[in-house]
Specification:
By secondary structure, the chain is of the alpha/beta class. Helix content is 60%, strand content 10%.
Length: 252
């Protein structure tokens, strides 16, 4: 048990050490790009060294700020919205700190005082891009749909946002979502995890035909007994299986 805990700690340290290394490289690179843009690609050795110093200084501020924002303390899942918010806060703190020093010393050493501010959004976009890529690599790929029932998901609220990606990535699932259905006009163009919107309930029979639907998954926590009865009636006429997802009250 102790060895398992120690191994988990080692894995976490390795993961965040890599993130720190990636972020440092990104920040230094962003400083180089910022100076190139600021001086219109006319950069000598002296400016290159100053941009390198700027990048390393910003990286130090970034990493220190990252510990205060919990960016490097295993609080967030990589690539999630919560982590991106922490990343923005970290980048903002680092930009203010390095920018202040850049402004104070820029006139003394004849170096662009705007370099740090130019580098900030570049480094932020690149760091966020790395995390998005890591998130994509660690997200389960879509499984083979062979042998699964082709399903329409009725209701595209928060329940569907969780269920659709899970069904697409779970090899043990009986169902595979191929189309969405919702009665809200505001969601008429909504897609989830690559699954397109097919229409509203009034289009149910056409959706079944167009997408070869074999099951309908009702993902509406507030569905009334009348709505569910309507679904069962229409589905039975078309030979489609019905699955009603449980509500939170059912779990409790």
């Amino acid at each position: 048990m102790a060895n398992t805990t120690e191994n988990q700690r080692l894995v976490r340290k390795t993961k965040f050490s890599r993130l720190i290394i990636f972020d440092t490289i990104v920040i230094v690179f962003a400083a180089q790009v910022a100076v190139l843009l600021r001086y219109e690609f006319s950069v000598g050795l002296a400016l290159w060294l100053l941009s390198l110093a700027l990048g390393l200084m910003t990286a130090v501020f970034w990493i220190v700020a990252g510990f205060f924002t919990h960016l490097y303390r295993d609080r967030f899942v990589v690539g999630t919205l919560e982590e991106i918010v922490a990343l923005v806060a970290t980048a903002g703190i680092a930009a203010v700190a390095s920018g202040a020093i850049n402004v104070i010393t820029g006139s003394l050493i004849e170096f662009a005082r705007s370099a740090a501010l130019i580098a900030a959004p570049i480094s932020l976009v690149l760091a966020a891009g790395i995390r998005a890529r890591l998130r994509a690599l660690t997200t389960p790929n879509r499984v083979n749909s062979a042998g699964k029932l082709r399903a329409v998901v009725y209701g595209v609220g928060t329940t569907a946002l969780r269920v659709v990606p899970q069904l697409k990535s779970d090899p043990g699932s009986e169902f595979f979502p191929v189309v969405l259905m919702d009665d809200s006009a505001q969601k008429s163009n909504r897609w989830i995890a690559g699954v397109p919107m097919g229409g509203a309930w009034e289009d149910f029979s056409q959706i079944v035909t167009d997408f070869n639907v074999e099951a309908v998954i009702v993902a509406i926590p507030s569905a009334t007994s009348e709505l569910i009865a309507r679904v069962y009636l229409a589905a039975s006429e078309l030979g489609v299986k019905v699955v009603v997802l449980p509500t939170l009250e059912d779990y409790l």
